[in-house]
Write a structure and sequence with these properties.
It is a single chain. The protein is an alpha+beta fold. It has a single domain, classed as Roll (Structural Genomics Hypothetical 15.5 Kd Protein In mrcA-pckA Intergenic Region, Chain A), CATH 3.10.290.10. The protein is 21% helix and 35% strand. The strands form 2 sheets. A 5-stranded mixed beta sheet has the order 1-7-6-3-4, with helices on one face. Helix 1 packs across helix 2. The longest helix has 9 residues.
Length: 75
């Protein structure tokens, strides 16, 4: 069953951004420490799959989810 949680589009002004940077930029998490912990603990998903790499390069259209909030990378 597809996730019915609404998706918020966040413009990054470019073609790619690292996962850790995006979580802070989009206002999902406030600090680098919180970002690191959430990613390492497996609480963050990218396109529906857990990704524990803070430096993962996100591309336009990728959907990142954390604690019931979903944000999509947009230009």
């Amino acid at each position: 069953m597809p996730d019915a949680t609404p998706i918020t589009d966040v413009s990054i002004g470019g073609d790619s951004i690292r996962l850790g940077q995006f979580l802070k930029f989009a206002g999902v998490l406030d600090s680098g420490g919180d970002v690191k912990e959430a990613i390492i603990d497996g609480f963050v998903t990218v396109n529906g799959e857990v990704d524990r790499r803070r430096g993962r390069q996100l591309q336009l259209g990728d959907v990142v989810a954390f604690e019931g909030r979903r944000v999509r990378v947009c230009a």
